Amino acid sequence: MNKGNNLNKEMFDSISKEYDFINNLITFGSHKKWKKEIVEISKKIKPKKILDLATGTADIAIELSSIENCKIIAVDPSSKMLKIGERKIQKLNTNSNIFLEEGNAENLKYRDGIFDIVTIGYGVRNFTNLNNSLNEIYRVLKKDGLLIILETSLPTNPLMSFFYNIHTKFYIRLIGKMFSNNSNAYQYLESSAKTFPYGEEFKKILRDANFKDITEEVKLFGASTLYISKK
Ligand SMILES: C[S@@+](CC[C@H](N)C(=O)[O-])C[C@H]1O[C@@H](n2cnc3c(N)ncnc32)[C@H](O)[C@@H]1O
User: Residue 46 maps to which CATH number?
Assistant: First the structure.
């Protein structure tokens, strides 16, 4: 693992305990609705095997587990985020079809063309090498398999942009300071959201990585975007 990946892992390990709580506070719970949308889109193609990359505390994997006869492999480099996810799955008390595994998007251990869908929620902007990760995702997807990405973006409307800036600059930083031992992590998450490519720029990155039929759905005036594309 390179230095960037190690720092990343340390950062997410350090915020794992309060991650879900803070995530709900700073998004006012809106991420849950968009994660459910990922499941609705996924269900339509009757998948048998889904890879949820950057699964963190397994929110999306848990939602996906409602799909019948489908195996969910949920991967993240942060063992501590996965531990919280494991506890959440145990609490569900069902015969779970979720398999949590430590791993990195840049170097996936899976064979070529075995997944019907790859999902990624708020993960891609943390990938140290986005191009390598997209190449790996392309490799493990089946032909015509779906890549569904939910990621932060920026509002384009000036009024919404004004409120967004107040929200990120003051509210997220304050919440990070109040509830986390690592408030720098929340500064990083906030500033990376401001610099990460979105909209047309991100769609070009997907196109350059050979993905096709790329669509985007803007959420909450642009605070997040759902990108759907095909191998
Ligand atoms: C903001 S959290 C998102 C977690 C979850 N998907 C969600 O929607 O709440 C980002 C996650 O990306 C993971 N991550 C960072 N670098 C990664 C990489 N190179 N490959 C896979 N996951 C990575 C982190 O460990 C962290 O759990």
Answer: 3.40.50.150
Which of 73, 76, 102, 190 to mutate for ligand 1's pocket (most ligand atoms within 8 Å of CB)? Answer: 76
User: What pairs with residue 50 in β-bridges?
Assistant: 72, 117
Q: What is the pLDDT of residues 108-165, one digit of tens each?
A: 999 999 999 999 999 999 999 999 999 999 999 999 999 999 999 999 999 999 998 8
Number of DSSP helices (H) and strands (E) in the chain, helices first: 9, 7
Encode 74-111: b = buried (16+ Cβ within 10 Å), e = exposed: bbbbbebbbebbbebbeeeeeeebbebeebbbbebebe
CA angle 169, 7, 74 (to 5 degrees): 90
Of all atoms in ligand 1, which is nearest to the CA of residue 52?
A: 6
Domain that holds residue 209: 3-154+197-230
Pocket probe for ligand 1: among 35, 63, 78, the residue whose CB has the most ligand atoms within 8 Å is 78
100 occurs within a structural domain: yes
Rounded CA gap, 122 and 173, in Å?
Answer: 18
57-106, pLDDT tens digit by residue? Answer: 999 999 999 999 999 999 999 999 999 999 999 998 776 899 999 999 99
Residue 159 domain flag: no
Q: Is the pTM of this model over 0.70?
A: yes
Domain count, the chain: 1
